[in-house]
Amino acid sequence: MIRTDSRKVQKGDTFVALPGISSNGDQYIAKAIAAGAQCIVCREGRYDVETVNTGNPRKYLEELLVKEYGDIISSMTLIALTGTNGKTTTCYLIAQALNRMGRPCGYIGTIGFYLGEKVRDLPNTSVDICELYGLLLEAHEKGFDTVALEASSQGLDLGRLNTLKFDAAVFTNLTEDHLDYHKTMDRYAEAKQILFRNLKPVGKALVNSDDPYAQKFMLNPGRTYTYGIRSGDYKAECFSYDAGTELTYSAGAGVYKVRTALMGDYNVYNTLAVIGVLDILGLAHEDIVKALEGLMAPDGRCDVIPYNSAAVVIDYAHTPDAVENIIKTAEGFTRGRMLAVFGCTGDREREKRPVMTRLVLANCSYAIITDDDPHTEPEQQIIDDMLEGNTFDNYEVCPDRREAIHRGMDMLQPGDSLLILGKGHENFIVMNGYSIPHNDRKAVLEYINA
Questions:
Q1: Torsional sign, CA 319, 323, 324, 326
Q2: Averaged pLDDT for residues 130-143
Q3: Where are the beta strands (DSSP E) in 116-209?
Q4: What is the largest CA-CA distance in the chain?
């Protein structure tokens, strides 16, 4: 096998030493050889095993992957989704729907690697190209020749999806996020555009036509389809909520009605994107409707836990747009007060912190500000940023996230809802180089069971 991670090298493997941002692959060549690598690809140097010197190890890696595995990968049906919000849920729903329709489909993204059931967690939304090839080959070997995967803007910009060609590419939306990396919204959009230039000759694009940035993704004339609530080739004609969603949508000359367990306007968009992809793949709308009726959102995405006639909502919302969406959704079923537990991520764009805080405090009766993932940034600096210019007093600060969740649970009365935002499915709080075990759902259930 071809490896870029020395920890995964086995006897007979080829190790490609890639230059990195925080570390360099050359540092791990000795470990790779000790683990049994029979060939080293690097920029310079000679070693006791076969050595290939190249000025561009990444380009060499891409060419090697295509040479060794390109025939298998190109025979698979690959579906990729990009956008600020909605990638994980929509991608997961596409895979779930195809599996329900008897077409084995894998999932690769934020919540891990799935082949029907979860196989394992992944380190990034978009893993590096070598690991991605490995996941696709594993899916193929186990009979999953269709794979839906998330394409992050950073992953696209760093070449993690290079050499792959897609049967369907989806743009969900673009709102302010990752500007610590991309610097401007235009550069953020340009990174996501890369995906749409990598369609197969017969591949098709699906774009949220209601999004202000939609026109930037209409890159394939005659092969770009749209979806939306206000407009689109797949359009929501009407919808209503009642412990789920009743949706009537139009597609071509047909009008169809479906009921799902998903809630919120943003999940109407997610559902329309699923419908569009399944139609692009040639599946009948009658079968699509049946498959949609049994779909469930992934863990940590509007995950509602009933408690003493109140509702606890766990959601991954970590951008202003996502926070606004989950608040709007919870308003639909909250009869009493809306409470919130939330924080902001460290070492990420600081500008959105006070915006998210104002959204929560303006729309909730009370909030508890706590840690998210501080990373290497001081907790107090994050909190100070969140409260910059704040004029509300309906909050308290409790940095310990587990304690903050239990404090929020203490406050619940019948009819209330408690929004626990920012971490969703995640199982750790990342702080100063350490991964501290924590899961929001487990913290809630711990409280309830006690």
A1: positive
A2: 96
A3: 117-120, 146-150, 166-171, 199-208
A4: 71
> Hey, what are 86's tokens?
């909605």
**Among all chains, which residue has been given the structure tokens 């897609």?**
166
What is the distance between the alpha carbons of residues 344 and 353, in angstroms, rounded to a whole number?
A: 6
Pairing of strands 105-109, 146-150: parallel
Measured at the alpha carbon of residue 300, what is the angle toward residues 375 and 120, in degrees to the nearest 5? Answer: 75
Minimal CA–CA distance to 374: which of 364, 384, 365? 384
Q: What is the DSSP string of 401-431?
A: HHHHHHHHHHH--TT-EEEEES-TT--EEEE
User: In terms of DSSP bridges, do strands 146-150 and 166-171 run parallel, antiparallel, or are they unpaired?
Assistant: unpaired
Residue range 223-261, pLDDT digits in tens: 999 999 999 999 999 999 887 899 999 999 999 999 998
Closest CA to 1 of 37, 53, 41, 54: 37
Name residue 151's amino acid. A
Report d(CA 450, CA 448) in Å as an integer. Answer: 5
Please, what's the b/e burial string for 132-150 (b: 16 or more CB within 10 A of its CB; e: otherwise)? bbbbbbebbeeebbbbbbb
Tokens representing 135? Answer: 């996941």
Please report the beta strands in 132-196, taking only residues with DSSP state E, as ranges in sequence order: 146-150, 166-171
State how far the Cα of 113 lies from the Cα of 88, in Å rounded to an integer.
12
Integer Cα distance of 422 and 103 in angstroms? 33
From the CB of residue 53, how many other CB atoms can be counted at a distance below 10 Å? Answer: 13
In which order are the strands placed within the sheet that holds 338-342?
A: 303-307, 310-315, 417-421, 338-342, 366-369, 395-397
pTM, two decimal places? 0.85
Tokens of 392: 């509300």
**In what helix (H) or strand (E) does residue 366 lie, and over which residues does it extend?**
strand 366-369
Nearest to 103 by CA among 294, 270, 287: 287
Do 161 and 124 form a contact (C-beta atoms < 8 A)? Answer: no
Q: Which of 319, 323, 436, 424 is nearest to 375 (CA)?
A: 436
**Residue 249 bridge partners (DSSP):** 236, 256
Task: Give the C-alpha separation, 406 to 393, whole Å.
Answer: 21
Residues 6+ apart with CB under 8 A from 224: 204, 205, 206, 207, 217, 218
User: Which amino acid, one-letter code, is at 30?
Assistant: A
Q: Is 147 helix (H, G, I), strand (E, B) or coil?
A: strand
Cα torsion angle, 182, 351, 304, 120, sign: positive
| Cβ atoms of residues 354 and 340 within 8 Å | no
For residues 379, 353, 439 and 241, what is the CA-based torsion angle, rounded to 10 degrees?
Answer: 160
pLDDT at residue 177, as a whole number = 66
Is the confidence at residue 265, as pLDDT, over 70? yes
Compute the average pLDDT of residues 351-365.
96
